[in-house]
Amino acid sequence: MQNQTKIIYHEILKAKEAHKKLLAILLDPDKIEVKSIPALVQKIQLSPATHIFVGGSIVTNFILEELLTELRNSIDLPIVLFPGDPTQISDKADAILFLSLLSGRNSDYLIEYQVQAAPILKKTNLEIISTGYILIESGSETAVARVSKTTPLQRENLDLVLATAQAGEMLGTKLIYLEAGSGAKQAISLQMISLIAKNVSIPVIVGGGIVTLRQIQEAHQAGADLVVIGTAFENDNGFFETIKPTK
Ligand code: 1GP
Predict the structure, then answer these.
(1) How far is CA 173 from CA 5, 14, 195, in A?
(2) Where are the chain's structural domains?
(3) For ligand 1, atom 2, which residue shows the shortest CA distance?
Protein backbone atom coordinates (compact mmCIF):
# COMPACT_ATOMS: atom_id res chain seq x y z
CA MET A 1 0.00 0.00 0.00
CA GLN A 2 2.94 2.32 0.65
CA ASN A 3 2.98 4.17 -2.64
CA GLN A 4 -0.75 4.69 -2.82
CA THR A 5 -0.57 7.54 -0.37
CA LYS A 6 -3.44 9.69 0.83
CA ILE A 7 -6.16 7.33 -0.24
CA ILE A 8 -7.05 5.52 2.95
CA TYR A 9 -9.51 8.09 4.21
CA HIS A 10 -11.01 8.39 0.75
CA GLU A 11 -11.55 4.62 0.73
CA ILE A 12 -13.22 4.77 4.15
CA LEU A 13 -15.59 7.44 2.86
CA LYS A 14 -16.32 5.39 -0.25
CA ALA A 15 -17.05 2.34 1.90
CA LYS A 16 -19.41 4.39 4.07
CA GLU A 17 -21.26 5.61 1.01
CA ALA A 18 -21.57 2.07 -0.29
CA HIS A 19 -22.63 0.73 3.14
CA LYS A 20 -19.65 -1.54 3.09
CA LYS A 21 -18.59 -2.25 6.65
CA LEU A 22 -14.94 -2.18 7.68
CA LEU A 23 -13.03 -4.13 10.28
CA ALA A 24 -9.63 -3.38 11.81
CA ILE A 25 -7.42 -5.72 13.76
CA LEU A 26 -5.53 -3.76 16.39
CA LEU A 27 -2.03 -4.97 17.14
CA ASP A 28 -0.33 -3.67 20.25
CA PRO A 29 3.44 -4.04 19.71
CA ASP A 30 3.90 -4.46 23.45
CA LYS A 31 1.88 -7.63 23.42
CA ILE A 32 3.62 -9.26 20.47
CA GLU A 33 6.81 -11.28 20.38
CA VAL A 34 8.99 -11.12 17.29
CA LYS A 35 8.93 -14.89 16.89
CA SER A 36 5.13 -14.93 16.74
CA ILE A 37 4.85 -12.36 13.93
CA PRO A 38 4.78 -14.85 10.98
CA ALA A 39 1.94 -16.85 12.54
CA LEU A 40 0.10 -13.65 13.32
CA VAL A 41 0.45 -12.45 9.74
CA GLN A 42 -0.98 -15.73 8.49
CA LYS A 43 -4.04 -15.39 10.72
CA ILE A 44 -4.60 -11.80 9.61
CA GLN A 45 -4.44 -12.93 5.98
CA LEU A 46 -7.19 -15.45 6.68
CA SER A 47 -9.35 -12.94 8.52
CA PRO A 48 -11.98 -10.60 7.08
CA ALA A 49 -10.02 -7.55 8.31
CA THR A 50 -9.95 -4.58 5.97
CA HIS A 51 -7.40 -2.56 8.00
CA ILE A 52 -4.60 -3.13 10.48
CA PHE A 53 -4.23 -0.68 13.32
CA VAL A 54 -0.95 -0.64 15.25
CA GLY A 55 -0.45 1.04 18.59
CA GLY A 56 -1.14 1.06 22.29
CA SER A 57 -1.52 3.43 25.23
CA ILE A 58 2.15 2.99 26.05
CA VAL A 59 4.55 1.09 23.83
CA THR A 60 7.80 0.19 25.54
CA ASN A 61 8.68 -2.67 23.30
CA PHE A 62 10.95 -1.79 20.41
CA ILE A 63 9.53 -4.21 17.90
CA LEU A 64 7.28 -1.53 16.34
CA GLU A 65 9.52 -1.04 13.29
CA GLU A 66 10.07 -4.75 12.82
CA LEU A 67 6.38 -5.48 13.13
CA LEU A 68 5.48 -2.79 10.59
CA THR A 69 8.09 -4.02 8.12
CA GLU A 70 6.87 -7.59 8.38
CA LEU A 71 3.23 -6.54 7.99
CA ARG A 72 4.04 -4.41 4.96
CA ASN A 73 5.99 -7.21 3.31
CA SER A 74 3.30 -9.79 3.80
CA ILE A 75 -0.12 -8.17 3.91
CA ASP A 76 -1.85 -5.96 1.38
CA LEU A 77 -4.06 -4.09 3.83
CA PRO A 78 -3.77 -0.46 4.90
CA ILE A 79 -1.58 -0.18 8.00
CA VAL A 80 -2.74 2.63 10.23
CA LEU A 81 -0.93 3.87 13.31
CA PHE A 82 -3.14 4.28 16.35
CA PRO A 83 -0.63 5.90 18.68
CA GLY A 84 -0.77 6.55 22.39
CA ASP A 85 1.88 9.25 22.06
CA PRO A 86 4.33 10.75 19.52
CA THR A 87 6.98 8.07 20.16
CA GLN A 88 4.80 5.66 18.19
CA ILE A 89 5.21 7.41 14.85
CA SER A 90 6.80 5.42 12.06
CA ASP A 91 7.09 6.03 8.34
CA LYS A 92 6.68 2.31 7.76
CA ALA A 93 2.90 2.55 8.16
CA ASP A 94 0.53 4.03 5.57
CA ALA A 95 -1.48 6.40 7.72
CA ILE A 96 -1.92 7.66 11.24
CA LEU A 97 -5.02 8.41 13.24
CA PHE A 98 -4.14 11.89 14.44
CA LEU A 99 -6.11 11.65 17.63
CA SER A 100 -7.43 14.32 19.92
CA LEU A 101 -8.98 12.95 23.11
CA LEU A 102 -12.11 15.09 23.00
CA SER A 103 -13.80 13.41 25.95
CA GLY A 104 -11.02 14.45 28.32
CA ARG A 105 -9.77 17.76 29.64
CA ASN A 106 -6.09 16.90 29.72
CA SER A 107 -4.52 19.42 27.34
CA ASP A 108 -1.60 17.06 26.64
CA TYR A 109 -3.96 14.70 24.83
CA LEU A 110 -6.10 17.45 23.33
CA ILE A 111 -3.30 19.45 21.69
CA GLU A 112 0.17 19.20 23.32
CA TYR A 113 1.15 15.83 21.84
CA GLN A 114 -0.25 16.91 18.48
CA VAL A 115 2.04 19.97 18.55
CA GLN A 116 5.00 17.73 19.36
CA ALA A 117 4.04 15.28 16.62
CA ALA A 118 3.42 17.81 13.82
CA PRO A 119 7.07 18.47 12.84
CA ILE A 120 7.83 14.75 13.01
CA LEU A 121 4.83 13.92 10.84
CA LYS A 122 5.77 16.58 8.31
CA LYS A 123 8.89 14.57 7.54
CA THR A 124 6.97 11.37 6.85
CA ASN A 125 4.76 10.22 4.01
CA LEU A 126 2.04 9.13 6.38
CA GLU A 127 -1.53 10.02 5.51
CA ILE A 128 -2.75 12.07 8.45
CA ILE A 129 -6.33 11.32 9.44
CA SER A 130 -7.65 13.73 12.05
CA THR A 131 -9.75 11.75 14.53
CA GLY A 132 -11.98 12.87 17.37
CA TYR A 133 -11.35 10.27 20.05
CA ILE A 134 -14.10 9.83 22.63
CA LEU A 135 -13.59 7.59 25.63
CA ILE A 136 -16.71 6.14 27.21
CA GLU A 137 -16.96 4.63 30.67
CA SER A 138 -17.05 0.84 30.37
CA GLY A 139 -17.29 -0.81 33.77
CA SER A 140 -13.77 -0.37 35.10
CA GLU A 141 -10.73 1.81 34.54
CA THR A 142 -9.05 1.16 31.20
CA ALA A 143 -5.47 1.86 30.09
CA VAL A 144 -6.55 4.90 28.05
CA ALA A 145 -8.16 6.54 31.09
CA ARG A 146 -5.22 5.65 33.33
CA VAL A 147 -2.51 6.82 30.95
CA SER A 148 -4.31 9.95 29.75
CA LYS A 149 -5.49 10.81 33.26
CA THR A 150 -8.91 11.68 31.92
CA THR A 151 -12.42 10.78 32.98
CA PRO A 152 -14.42 8.88 30.37
CA LEU A 153 -17.88 10.16 29.46
CA GLN A 154 -20.72 8.37 31.22
CA ARG A 155 -22.50 5.72 29.19
CA GLU A 156 -25.88 7.17 30.07
CA ASN A 157 -25.00 10.72 29.12
CA LEU A 158 -25.85 10.35 25.47
CA ASP A 159 -26.41 14.07 25.00
CA LEU A 160 -22.86 14.85 26.10
CA VAL A 161 -21.38 12.12 23.92
CA LEU A 162 -23.34 13.44 20.95
CA ALA A 163 -22.33 17.06 21.62
CA THR A 164 -18.70 15.93 21.89
CA ALA A 165 -18.86 14.04 18.60
CA GLN A 166 -20.55 16.97 16.88
CA ALA A 167 -17.97 19.39 18.27
CA GLY A 168 -15.29 17.13 16.80
CA GLU A 169 -16.99 17.18 13.43
CA MET A 170 -17.36 20.97 13.57
CA LEU A 171 -13.66 21.29 14.43
CA GLY A 172 -12.94 19.37 11.26
CA THR A 173 -12.02 15.89 12.46
CA LYS A 174 -12.44 13.35 9.68
CA LEU A 175 -13.47 10.46 11.89
CA ILE A 176 -15.12 9.93 15.26
CA TYR A 177 -13.76 7.04 17.34
CA LEU A 178 -16.06 5.81 20.11
CA GLU A 179 -13.72 3.99 22.48
CA ALA A 180 -14.69 1.81 25.43
CA GLY A 181 -11.01 1.03 26.08
CA SER A 182 -8.98 -2.06 25.36
CA GLY A 183 -10.36 -5.07 27.20
CA ALA A 184 -13.40 -3.09 28.34
CA LYS A 185 -16.00 -4.98 30.33
CA GLN A 186 -18.78 -3.26 28.43
CA ALA A 187 -18.54 -2.34 24.77
CA ILE A 188 -20.06 0.88 23.42
CA SER A 189 -23.84 0.48 23.52
CA LEU A 190 -25.72 -0.02 20.28
CA GLN A 191 -27.97 2.87 21.26
CA MET A 192 -24.95 5.18 21.47
CA ILE A 193 -23.49 3.95 18.17
CA SER A 194 -26.80 4.50 16.45
CA LEU A 195 -27.29 7.99 17.90
CA ILE A 196 -23.83 9.18 16.92
CA ALA A 197 -23.88 7.57 13.49
CA LYS A 198 -27.22 9.21 12.69
CA ASN A 199 -26.12 12.64 13.85
CA VAL A 200 -22.66 13.12 12.41
CA SER A 201 -21.84 12.79 8.75
CA ILE A 202 -18.24 11.62 9.12
CA PRO A 203 -17.42 7.90 9.52
CA VAL A 204 -17.67 6.39 13.00
CA ILE A 205 -15.15 3.92 14.41
CA VAL A 206 -16.16 1.77 17.38
CA GLY A 207 -13.83 -0.28 19.57
CA GLY A 208 -13.15 -1.65 23.00
CA GLY A 209 -14.60 -4.77 24.62
CA ILE A 210 -15.98 -6.31 21.43
CA VAL A 211 -15.32 -10.01 21.84
CA THR A 212 -17.83 -11.89 19.71
CA LEU A 213 -18.58 -12.03 16.03
CA ARG A 214 -22.17 -11.17 16.81
CA GLN A 215 -21.08 -7.97 18.58
CA ILE A 216 -19.15 -6.96 15.47
CA GLN A 217 -22.22 -7.45 13.31
CA GLU A 218 -24.46 -5.62 15.75
CA ALA A 219 -22.08 -2.66 15.98
CA HIS A 220 -21.98 -2.51 12.18
CA GLN A 221 -25.76 -2.73 11.95
CA ALA A 222 -26.14 0.01 14.55
CA GLY A 223 -24.11 2.35 12.35
CA ALA A 224 -20.41 1.78 13.04
CA ASP A 225 -18.50 2.19 9.79
CA LEU A 226 -15.40 0.48 11.14
CA VAL A 227 -15.14 -1.86 14.12
CA VAL A 228 -11.83 -2.44 15.91
CA ILE A 229 -10.90 -5.80 17.43
CA GLY A 230 -7.83 -5.99 19.64
CA THR A 231 -8.00 -8.18 22.72
CA ALA A 232 -10.25 -10.90 21.27
CA PHE A 233 -7.80 -11.50 18.42
CA GLU A 234 -4.81 -11.17 20.72
CA ASN A 235 -6.22 -13.85 23.00
CA ASP A 236 -7.23 -16.13 20.17
CA ASN A 237 -5.62 -15.65 16.77
CA GLY A 238 -8.20 -18.06 15.37
CA PHE A 239 -10.99 -15.70 16.41
CA PHE A 240 -12.13 -14.92 12.88
CA GLU A 241 -12.07 -18.45 11.58
CA THR A 242 -15.78 -18.94 12.02
CA ILE A 243 -16.78 -15.58 10.60
CA LYS A 244 -18.29 -15.10 7.18
CA PRO A 245 -16.45 -12.32 5.37
CA THR A 246 -18.32 -9.01 5.52
CA LYS A 247 -16.24 -7.35 2.85
C1 1GP B 1 -8.75 -0.37 21.95
O2 1GP B 1 -10.68 -0.05 20.62
C3 1GP B 1 -9.55 -0.83 20.78
O4 1GP B 1 -8.23 0.88 21.72
C5 1GP B 1 -9.81 -2.31 20.83
O6 1GP B 1 -10.24 -2.75 22.10
O7 1GP B 1 -8.74 -4.60 22.76
O8 1GP B 1 -11.04 -4.42 23.72
O9 1GP B 1 -10.71 -5.08 21.33
P10 1GP B 1 -10.18 -4.30 22.49
Answers:
(1) 19, 17, 18
(2) 8-235
(3) 207
Q: Which atom of ligand 1 is nearest to the CA of 144?
A: 4
CA dist., res. 233 & res. 39, Å (int): 13
Ligand 1, residue 179: give the atom nearest the CA: 2
Ligand 1 pocket (Cβ < 6 Å) reads 26, 179, 182-184, 207-210, 228-232
Domain 8-235's class? Answer: alpha beta
pLDDT digits (tens, 9 = 90+) for 25-73: 999 998 888 888 899 999 999 999 999 999 988 877 678 999 999 999 9
Chain-centre distance of CA 6, in angstroms? Answer: 18
**Could you tell me what percent of the chain has a pLDDT over 70?**
95
User: pLDDT tens digits, residue range 176-201?
Assistant: 999 999 999 999 999 999 999 999 99
Please enumerate, as own/partner, the contacts of 36-45 that have beta carbons within 8 Å and a separation of 24 or more. Answer: 37/66, 37/67, 37/70, 38/70, 39/237, 40/237, 41/70, 41/71, 41/74, 41/75, 43/233, 43/237, 43/238, 43/240, 44/71, 44/75, 44/77, 45/74, 45/75
